[in-house]
Every structure is written in structure tokens, then in C-alpha cells.
Structure prediction request, 639 residues.
Amino acid sequence: MTFFRLAPVSFLRASLLLVAVLLLTLLQGISQARAQAFEINIDGVGAKQVTLAVAQPLAGLVEQQSAELLRTVVLADLGRTGAFKFVPASPGVDRVSDEQVMTPAVLDNWRKRGADFVVGSQLRTAPGGGLELRFRVADALKSVDLGGLALTGQTTPADIRRLAHQMADKILELTTGEPGFFSTRIAYVRRAPGSAQLIVADSDGENPRVALRSTEPIISATWSPDGTRLAYVSFETGKPVVYVHDVASGARRIVANFKGSNSSPAWSPDGQSLAVVLTKEGGSQIFIVSAEGGAARRVTPGGGINTEPSFSADGQSLYFSSDRGGGAQIYRVSINGGSPERVTFGGSYNARPIVSPDGSTLAFITRRDGRFLVAAKNLATGAETLLSDGPSDDSPSFAPNGKWVIFASQAGGRDSLSAVSIDGRVRSRLSLSATSIRSPAWGRLP
Amino acid sequence: MKLTSSLLAASLALALAACSSVSLDEPPAEAPANAGAPSGVSGVGGASAALPPGSGGVADITAAGGRSASRIPAERLRAAGYSAEGVASIYFGLDDYTVAPRYQALINSTAELLRADPQRSLAVEGNTDSRGTSEYNLALGQRRADAVVSALKLLGVPASQMEAISNGEEKPATQGASEAAFEQNRRADLFIQ
Prediction:
């Protein structure tokens, strides 16, 4: 199986990374941490790797279990990026607090053990009864204090995870310059014959919550830009209708229920409107409607298939798939209408375009040799990269930092979620053990 | 609806908002069930219907789909090529949405049934196999349903008696990724009432 399309990376390095992660999880007593909802298999390593030591947090007896969960989640988050090698830290022996980490002797010790960066932290019970976390990241080679955070939370597993994700976000930023994305949420549809559930979970699949349970299909879930609402298509009334659902309260509203089918919602960058696909005027046409619902304004000319709209970053154009040229290809049109311009030319089927948050890249599904794969196109240069192998990949969605694409794929005959870095080097498969999952959507920070 | 479970759900919603951890076992609220099969005549507009916030973070939908039985006598239906329940299917080739000549008899008898009584209505549901993207397939299924409706319009059936919708790849007749399954799923289902 070919992992990498851009530059070959030695399998030895990849194996060592996997072995290191496995060893670390064993050392941390992962049996004490709650089992992850996703089973994660990582292929590949990032282009640049840094060696990181996350020391054992300084914590009293009372906070010990919380500290273990915290560190486990931090390491799992950072490990999924493929950007780190980890120096093991033994429980009891390798405890370093945020106040100690910059001590020359401490840095010296970790530098000798191979660390480029060291994280020291402590976890205390706050006067009010919650938890107080303080951590600091040190550049071990340059002996520079990169900074850290002080955070508070409850002692519940869900809140400890939240703290861990924030900590991992900060560590990622400080050590690699990349913005963190572990505090985001994903949504997906869990499907079985005769049932569908819309699930909202943490970025690592934990804390899954059912937002909608139905005996009819749910498809095309997509997060609002502010990360508070999901738009999706539900077949519960007997045909496809577009809903907007406030995740915190559960309140939802129908935004498109015209005659015929209503589907394929896409949020405008300002979160005020949605592009949707309606069949009320013949064929499948793209319209724009307010996020509150109401009248729909048509955008695409002509008959036939026009679907899967995605806004450009400036909100002024829509990328979409259409059969106006024969088979499925991707086009761009101004939101004010006009002549669509064709964007894809490779192969006979290109669909499901999705624009990256910074507007620079288009991810989409392409058919090559009968296999449906994820591809990415640099919108400035036009250069295309194949990101996955198929055979039935669908629904690409960008992580908020634009560096990762999550998508639905198949493994062992079941649908699962996969993630790939935008350069194609690192892939993870997040598999749920017993169910089929579709329509993943990666949200912004809540 | 069950008032106590709505209250329970409402308090759970508040709990959710306060960021406590939520177990999957919490009882879901029941959202109001919507009306049954889509109306081919009035066509609901884009008016937004806000559901009450007390839905508790989870909406539990029991399918309102599943069409009611046809009022046309079973004998007439069978003679026209339909099942006793008023269902018939038209199958399509890969990426294709033209109605094959072998279905002309069914199209003719459907047009007759509909022209004979303006109270009768036809819902056509287009479907695809599972290859390709789900929304593109929803549009392709629509093409198939539209092709059937167009053929009937050509025979003088008023548009107001017909509605064409699509399930895309979401409601396969046969599960699986074999050629046989793909063939079974590339179809338009006709429901005549």
C-alpha cells in the first residue's frame, strides 16, 4: 500500500513512531484512562518532526488520576499530528512542574535525553473545588521560555479532556508555529439500516452526543463558521429538507422545504446565509437563502445537475459540481449569477468541492480508475495532489487550521472516518468499531 | 406529547449548556412529528418553523415517511403494472437517467390512471447506486425522477398531480457493493395514489 505521494519517507521512521506511541501508551497505564471512542491507526510522519518531552505533571494524591488522564489526552492529540517524537517520562520520577521546567539542571537532563522541547505542568485543586492547571513549554536547545497557560476546570473527565485539548493546542502552537485544533468538535452521521444518528463529538471522537436520532437518512452535516450550529439534510418528513440546528440548545429550524428536494447546505463565511440545492425550478439548482429561512435566490443558470456548493473565502463565489459539460466536473460562479467557469479537467468525474478556511485550496472527490479519492487543488497555481486511495471516499471537510482534511471512507466493508494532512504525508483512520459513519464535518472552535 | 419527559429534557438541555459531561444514555426528547408524505400540490415554501428550545439537545424523530396505501383498486393497479399497494419501479443504466423503451407501457398506463381522476397523485422517488458522492447522487436520483415525470407530462398529465423527489444513494433496495446491488439501486420508484 502506498502511503505517500509527495515524498517517500522511510518505513523505519514510520515504524519507530508507531512503536514509540505504543510504548508511551503502555507506560502511562492507559487502562486507567477511559477507552477512546475511536481506534486510531496512523500512517506516515510529518515533514518536520520535533522531539517533545511532556513531563509527568506535579500533582497531589487527590489529583493523580486527573493528571494521568490529562497527560494521556495531550500525548494522544499531539501524536495524531505525526509531527512529534516523544521522550518517555516515567511516573513518579519524571515530574516537572511549570515552575521547575526552566531550571538549567532540568533542561540539561531532558536535552541529554533527546528533547527539543519540554513541557512542565502542575495540577492543583482550586479553592472553590475545581481543578487548576498550569503548564509551561521550554525550548531545551536554546534554553528559552516559550510561555504557557493557567486554566481552570471541573474534575469531570469531560472537563479534564477540555483542559488537555487546550494544553495540546498551545503546545502545538509554541513548538511548531501551527495553530491548534484539538479543542474543535466534529459532527458525523452514524448509520445503520433503518436508523441514523447525528453525532457531535470532541475532535478525538470522545464525548459523542446524539444531536438527532431518526429512522430516516441524515446527510450533509456542516458547521456554521462560529461553530455553534449545524446545517444538515434530514429525510424525516419523507423527502430531503434542510435544517439548521443549534447544538447547545437542540433548537432547530427548517430553512429550506420547497417543493421537491432541498439539500447540500453550505454556510457563507459570515454565517448569515446558506447556499442550498433546490429542485423546485427543474433540475438541481443552487440557491442562496438566509440562515433564518425564507425566500431563496437562484444562482446557477441552466438545467441539469448543479450541486455541492462551497463558498470562496471572500464569500463572493461558489464552487460547485455540475454535469453541464457532460459528466460531473467542478465549476465556479459568482454569487450574483452569471456564466460558470470550469475548474477541474483531470479525469471524467470531479465533485464535492470544499474550500479551505484560508481560501487557498480546494479539496474534492475525483474518480481515477474507477476509485473515488480525495484530491486537493491549489487555487492559485492549479496544481492537484491526490490525498487518498479510495475506493469510495466522500465528504471531505477541512480542519479549522486548514492543514487536515477529514473524510468518509470504507474499511473492511464499513464506513469510517479518515484524516489526511493537506500535503498527503500523514494519514489517520478513526474507526468506530461497530457502526457505519458518514458525512463528517469539522467545526471551528466552539 | 409527554410533558414530563419534555421537562426532563429541558433541564438536561440546561445541564448540557453548563458543559457537564453527558452520557449517551440520557433519554432523548421527542420532537414533534411532522406531517406525512410530501404534498405534491401545495409545495411548502421556505418559511422557517422553529422547534421549541426545550427539545433538550436531542431530537428524536420517528419516521413520518412510508406512504399511505393507494386508494386505487388493486385490480386496476396490477393491470397497469403496479403492485397491489400502488408501487412500480423503473431501472437505469450507470450514470443514465433516460427512461428505457421497455417501460413505455408502464408510462402509458400511469398517464391513463392519472388523467382519469384529478384526485389521483403520483410521487416518483429517484435512487442511485452507492458509487460517487452522496449529494451528486441525490441530484442524479432527481434526474431520474424528473425523467419519469417529464415522460408523463408529454402524455398530458398535469404537473400538479405529480412530485419528483430523490433519495440519492440513501435508501438502497439492496445493501452491498456488488454489480447486482448497484443495478437494483439505480431506479425510480413510482407511488400512485
Summary: Chain A touches chain B through 78 residues (CB under 8 Å). The CA atoms of residues 319 and 332 of chain A lie 4 Å apart. The radius of gyration of chain A is 23 Å.
